[in-house]
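Most newcomers find our protein records easier to grasp once they have seen one. Sequence and backbone structure share a record, each on its own labelled line. To make this concrete, we reproduce a full record directly below:
***
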Amino acid sequence: MSLQSALQDFSGPMVSVRNLRKRFGRLEVLKGLDLDVARSEVLVVIGPSGSGKSTLLRCINHLEQPTSGEVIVAGERVNRGDLSGRALQRHLNAVRTEMGMVFQHFNLFPHMTVLGNIIEAPIQVQKRRREEVIPEARELLNKVGLVEKQDAYPGQLSGGQQQRVAIARALAMQPSVMLFDEVTSALDPELVGEVLRVMEDLAREGMTMMVVTHEMGFAERVGDRVIFMDDGLIVEEAEPAEIFARPKEERTQRFLADVLK
């Protein structure tokens, strides 16, 4: 069964991580994490810089290879030691098709128009027809409020507009899970809101989302569950109202006291 078929039929957690560890040389960045993300859940990951938040997302997407442990999507193990070469690459390509990822820096192709950026992966990776993909791309641009910019180039857009194009580009692959890695941290403050509104719309539509962010208002307003990480560990997790109003762990209390001043 293909991963796409498994995602349609699977009733368990959309994403599961079991005893996930990641080392860079002597530095252990992730120290045995366990977590589940339910279908249509918005899981927000907060914590200080260097706590392992971005590495967690990159291991889930296999942009970083876990040192040990398991990453499971719809019951299908992502990091498979029994595959190698082309078989492993085909497997990872299938997984990444189902997990859209948006980064802090927009990573748009500067030589392509906005529309070209969005249609590139569906045509090249999914081998879909251009005439089929273009109307869908325009619908996505309408969703993020940028349909009038389809013929512009990334350098002609503001940071907030570029990030909204990056979200539309990830959605063009029709993923089942969206991973957001501090997508507003490189933006000027007045541009943050336009990106967060697009993410809130996705949450209302039922998209499964893992969001690493320093935007505590977004975490409290949109998250179904919040995880606080520090030093490669999950220190505390709870519903937003609980973790922001009554954090149990002293480390969580200190972090929130600092960021909510």
About this structure: Strands lie at 15-24, 27-37, 42-46, 68-73, 76-77, 99-102, 177-181, 208-212, 225-230, 233-238. Residues 189-204 form the longest helix (16 residues). The chain has a mean pLDDT of 92.
